[in-house]
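pasting for ref
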Amino acid sequence: MNVKQLRYIAFALAAAAFCSCQKDPSTSDLHRDYLVYTAHDSGTDFSAIETYYLPDSILVIGNSDQTEYWKDEDALSIVDAVVSQMDNAGYTRIDDKALANVGLQLSYVRKVTYFVGYDNPYWWWYYPYYWAPGYWGNWAGWHYPYSVYYGYTAGSLLMEMLNLEADQESGKKLPVVWDSFIGGLLTDNAELNLQRTIDGVNQAFEQSPYLTK
């Protein structure tokens, strides 16, 4: 055994001794990070979509006994982030929802609420003031072409893309072809909450490359 081999063995033993003294990585800080989940209908050709409609408000899911919308500067900053991502992906925002290929609806969960989708009971039954299907046309309800089971907690943002060109015959449900859940947004810092929400929006599009035309 030559000197070079001895040095290599000594270095390996020293490295092993150092590692054995280290504690396992802590996971206690993981709750500080936000979570971004996305899902989509694999049968949708997103490259064929040209136009979208997005309201200048975010629906609030909270304790109110009537429909409530979030429309201040912070809400518009979030809407603008979505618009920027959609425009960068190759879509065109239009003002007439009746002419749009898809619609985008944003919802913010102010209280702890659990939603279930895909099969009965549809998750929106749990909150009577969710986006009404009638806002988008003559639809009987919502339809997810993929399995959905969500539990949303306070401080979550929901983004959903709706196929407005789907068959709208009597009794048909409006298909949700892409959706995103962004959780873990709340801290005691309002400015940080807004930045985390915008970062979450950007991350949702980044992990959905199929949306890019």
